UniProtKB/TrEMBL annotation:
<keyword id="KW-0732">Signal</keyword>
<protein>
    <submittedName>
        <fullName>NitT/TauT family transport system substrate-binding protein</fullName>
    </submittedName>
</protein>
<dbReference type="Pfam" id="PF13379">
    <property type="entry name" value="NMT1_2"/>
</dbReference>
<dbReference type="GO" id="GO:0042597">
    <property type="term" value="C:periplasmic space"/>
</dbReference>
<comment type="similarity">
    <text>Belongs to the bacterial solute-binding protein SsuA/TauA family.</text>
</comment>
Amino acid sequence: MKKSLKFFITFVLVALFIIPITACSQKETLKTLRVAEVTHSIFYAPQYVALSEGFFEEEGLKIDLKTTWGGDKTMTALLSGGADIALVGSETSIYVYSQGTSDPVINFAQLTQTDGTFLISRNKVDNFSWEQLKGSTFLGQRKGGMPQMVGEFVLKKHGIDPHKDLNVIQNIDFANIANAFASGTGDYVQLFEPTASIFEQEGKGYIVASFGTESGRVPYTTFMAKQSFIKENAEDVEKFTRALYKAQKWVETHSSSEIAKSIQPYFEDTDIQLIEKVVERYKNQDSYATDPILDEEEWIHLQDIMDEAGELPKRIEHKTLVNTSFAKKAIDD
């Protein structure tokens, strides 16, 4: 009996010693992937869910996430080797390819499928119509970026010539647009969430329309990487995409309240009720892609919008800059 007790105590002590080492060892073996996001927004909720719910860790990945504030800066980080993966508008991959490169940037997983910006009026408008923008000063996004191109696409759809019917300001750095409007520049501004709702809450502006609702389905924000990186790290890209798909299904099947609680650690300065309100708004307009596949129809629509804005260098086939194999495998697994 004493011998059995002695053996049991020894076993427990050994177990207590080994378990922490094993846990540490597993944590140390996580593969780190550096991800550069173009902006920090509730618009990217599935990405933060994948982080907070541990889906990346389940796949053996540790994500080093940094916000690079603007498509040009995000692409610079990716091309220079400062990031492994970029979360940015698909148009950037077209710009890079059109300039000539032996290592093109490939879109491998779609995160959002509509525009994520909203039209904010400085003054409260009871019965808004797009016609009211004529003659106004419109504080738009960076020329050549998806927000601005979609903005122009929507304006033209409503019979407004953005360069003749209103005064468009496009020379303010992406990170400073909200501050410029708050300081008194412009009658209208195009903003992402949660900034749009915060402005409304603080009385700095009023949401009068959604560019996402107006523009239709488009591969607005995707995860992309250099072709060479994908080739050399195919297994990691596969794991990354699988974790993302888990998060997309989680977002699709959970309430706005549950999603808000999950992503709140990434928006500590934002009220939980406001996060929930923004998530609900994006869910209602189907902004969150329910799977990572960037299909050909969306790719064509993207280039139609670029062409309409006069920013499309040339038409590029879907198969040239889009790799759907990882997304399809994630769905099939």
